[in-house]
Amino acid sequence: QVQLVESGGGLVQPGGSLRLSCTASVRVFSVYDMAWYRQAPGKQRELVATITRGGSLTYADSVKGRFTISRENDKKTVYLQMNSLEPEDTAVYYCNTPRVNFNWGQGTQVTVSS
What we know:
The chain is mainly beta and 114 residues long. The chain has strands at residues 4-7, 10-12, 18-24, 34-39, 46-51, 57-59, 67-72, 77-82, 91-96, 108-112. The strands form two sheets. It has a six-stranded mixed β-sheet with strand order 2-10-9-4-5-6, with no helix packed on it. The chain has a four-stranded antiparallel β-sheet with strand order 1-3-8-7, with no helix packed on it.
């Protein structure tokens, strides 16, 4: 069973930066499109960013220009670089495929507050 392990969250002030990582225990990582999601308190989980096998990127309008998704296939890891963080970015962040092929991991908490 594939495990997704997210890390890198924390408490940061508005305007700050964080880099999230997600490692997947799959045999071959490079064949999967990957994505980052987030779920804020009282809200549904939303798609934040995607990266295809070929490296094509998409972003939610709310994070465009501030967040960057990337991947390292040999490390079976997808990253989310988050800059210019806003209180509205506070959420638990998860990775998965865009089709949610895997069970969800535990996520990593990001809190943006002064």
